[in-house]
């Protein structure tokens, strides 16, 4: 438990560190943090004389139907996609830790009731839950983050509770109880810190699924609105010129796929099968 | 040897098992209905206000009387619990309500497009199940062999690719470059193939990964060593014993896959511009058309839970161990 990121320091293949995956994530992270510095051009600057140009040295990803530089739009899109993803992860994380602690702390009937609800929700496709939440709250990046975050709560809460249970049964927690410490204090000061490792490892993996869901819902038109770029909506608007300009959908999609594969690679333990069926 | 069970002993556990499975079916359907109802009707956002917001574009707007009249027409003036129970009763009776957006009965709207979606989902399952079984059987033939090392990470890789991007790539290659199949909106079998493959691939990836693991695990069981030691050909050990044991959990997973396929139609139908429940859901979610969204969610839950019910009921027929009382499997 001393290493906060066990998954980051152990590669998916025979203990080799996933340098390539970490490099991809580093570049994507830099693009998302400082898109203005990384992008060669203004993502919103239109130039009708340069409409639908194929990729070249000048425009590495080509240009779109309004002559905007697609490479710059993908870089600025990283910010929208990844910040929505991180926000969703924060939602999922906060709610799940609360549920896991409540179930672990109160136990008994509360634990059974919470886990019964979680189990039923776990059986449902998370896309369905996300769509219901979007239908309720309306569209927009913030609502989308809430929808995707809450949809991944069931899986997250199960692991959190299991971790709380595991740590709670260890001798040092029993000893703390023997010393007469209040249960709430034991839970927050002794149990919670020891669940950090496994839960953060899960968070890295979950982020891959979340980024995928965020872009899928943006593709459906529920997230960032054009002209502001976001990976999902870039691919969706690129469909209009699908037959003539292959780069408009393929290249943003390739970037998205690379980031998701890299997140999987970094967060996944060897031979672990896919968890998402969507 | 334990004593043979009498007839009554053998019937009761199975009956209890069947009843529990029906109970689970009811729980899933009711859970989806409750979740959808709570999100769509119980949250502060007023469905009528949302609807009027969408309809009234420009000057004018609605008078309080009009709003009250609409609230009454859609039954939104009743207490929440009355609506919750009443709406479920009407759903059971086949009355799915009226669309906020078009004013048409939801039943007609669903009925018009449901066959398209069921055909797509069915075709995808017909591709996904044999494909993943075959792929897993080929990969796990020899654990640690060349084929195994080559293929073992492919499913995880495909599962990580965005499903909508995969669909677009297939469309790009097979429709626009090779011109093998008609582009979007195609009808008949030719138009069905590409969307079904696009829907099946991510689903098979997840299925293959799990089945591969299951096959690898069973191969390490002591009985496999014993069978090989007794001189059975590997082909026979693998297909008749290893595969048979590994394929049973595959059946349960296949049931869960139906949920993934149903959800996947949302993306696939949008990518391929096919009319269907998924696309209807996408547009209804966007305009917050609560009755349509609720009806599609409940319909999906009935199909999903129904498939799993059928599979669970088949289990005792396929696995004789389950029929034995005290086996613990029926618990």
Question: Can you give me a brief rundown of this structure?
Answer:
The complex is a heterodimer of chains A (278) and B (331). Helix content of chain A is 66%, strand content 0%. Chain A has 12 helices and no strands.
Question: Can you tell me about this structure?
Answer:
Chain A has 278 residues and is mainly α. Chain A has a single domain (18-33, 59-268), classed as Orthogonal Bundle (MetI-like fold), CATH 1.10.3720. Chain A is 66% helix and 0% strand. Chain A is elongated, with a radius of gyration of 22 Å. Residues 1-14 and 269-278 of chain A have low confidence and may be disordered. Chain B is mostly helical. Chain B folds into 2 domains: 1-101 and 287-331, no CATH class; 113-285, MetI-like (MetI-like fold, Orthogonal Bundle). Helices cover 76% and strands 0% of the residues of chain B. Chain B is built from 14 helices and no strands. The longest helix of chain B has 38 residues, at 234-271. The two termini of chain B are 22 Å apart. Chains A and B meet through helix 4, helix 5, helix 10 and helix 12 of A and helix 1, helix 7, helix 8, helix 9 and helix 11 of B.
């Amino acid at each position: 438990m001393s290493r906060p990121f066990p998954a980051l320091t152990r590669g998916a293949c025979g203990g080799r560190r996933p340098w390539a995956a970490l490099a991809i994530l580093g570049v994507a992270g830099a693009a998302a943090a400082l898109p203005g510095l990384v992008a060669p051009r203004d993502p919103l600057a239109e130039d009708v004389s340069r409409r639908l140009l194929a990729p070249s040295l000048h425009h590495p990803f080509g240009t779109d139907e309004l002559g905007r530089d697609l490479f710059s739009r993908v870089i600025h899109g990283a910010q929208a996609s990844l910040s929505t993803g991180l926000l969703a992860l924060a939602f999922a994380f906060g709610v799940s830790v609360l549920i896991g602690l409540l179930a672990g702390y109160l136990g008994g009937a509360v634990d059974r009731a919470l886990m019964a609800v979680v189990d039923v929700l776990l059986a449902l496709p998370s896309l369905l839950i996300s769509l219901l939440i979007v239908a309720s709250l309306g569209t927009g990046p913030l609502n989308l983050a809430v929808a995707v975050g809450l949809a991944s709560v069931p899986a997250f809460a199960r692991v959190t509770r299991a971790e709380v249970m595991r740590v709670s049964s260890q001798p040092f927690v029993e000893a703390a109880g023997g010393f007469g410490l209040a249960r709430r204090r034991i839970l927050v000061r002794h149990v919670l810190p020891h669940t950090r490792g496994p839960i953060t490892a899960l968070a890295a993996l979950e982020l891959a699924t979340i980024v995928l869901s965020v872009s899928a819902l943006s593709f459906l038109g529920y997230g960032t609105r054009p002209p502001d770029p976001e990976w999902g909506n870039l691919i969706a608007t690129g469909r209009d010129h699908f037959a003539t300009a292959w780069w408009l959908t393929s290249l943003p999609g390739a970037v998205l796929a690379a980031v998701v594969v890299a997140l999987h690679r970094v967060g996944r333990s060897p031979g672990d099968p896919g968890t998402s069926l969507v | 040897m334990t004593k043979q069970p009498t007839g009554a002993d053998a019937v009761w556990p199975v009956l209890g098992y069947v009843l529990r499975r029906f109970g689970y079916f009811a729980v899933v359907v009711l859970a989806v209905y409750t979740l959808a109802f709570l999100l769509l009707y119980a949250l502060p956002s007023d469905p009528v206000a949302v609807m009027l917001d969408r309809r009234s574009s420009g000057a004018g707007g609605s008078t309080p009387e009009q709003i009250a009249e609409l609230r009454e027409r859609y039954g939104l003036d009743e207490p929440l619990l009355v609506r919750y129970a009443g709406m479920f009763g009407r759903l059971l009776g086949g009355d799915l309500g009226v669309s906020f957006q078009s004013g048409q009965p939801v039943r007609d709207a669903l009925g018009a497009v449901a066959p398209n979606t069921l055909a797509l989902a069915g075709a995808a399952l017909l591709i996904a199940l044999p494909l993943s079984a075959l792929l897993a059987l080929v990969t796990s033939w020899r654990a640690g062999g060349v084929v195994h090392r080559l293929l073992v990470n492919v499913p995880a890789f495909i599962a990580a690719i965005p499903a909508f991007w995969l669909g677009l790539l297939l469309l790009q290659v097979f429709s626009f470059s090779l011109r093998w199949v008609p582009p979007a909106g195609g009808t008949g079998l030719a138009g069905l193939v590409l969307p079904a493959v696009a829907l099946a691939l991510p689903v098979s990836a997840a299925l293959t990964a799990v089945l591969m693991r299951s096959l690898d695990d069973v191969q390490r069981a002591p009985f496999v060593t014993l069978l090989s030691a007794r001189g059975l050909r590997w082909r026979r050990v693998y297909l008749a014993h290893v595969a048979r044991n590994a394929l049973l959990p595959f059946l349960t997973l296949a049931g869960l896959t139906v949920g993934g396929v149903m959800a996947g139609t949302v993306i696939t139908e949008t990518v391929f511009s096919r009319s269907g429940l998924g696309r209807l859901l996408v547009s209804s979610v966007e305009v917050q058309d609560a009755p349509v969204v609720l009806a599609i969610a409940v319909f999906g839950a009935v199909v999903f839970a129904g498939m799993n019910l059928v599979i669970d009921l088949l289990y005792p027929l396929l696995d004789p161990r389950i029929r034995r009382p005290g086996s613990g499997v029926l618990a």
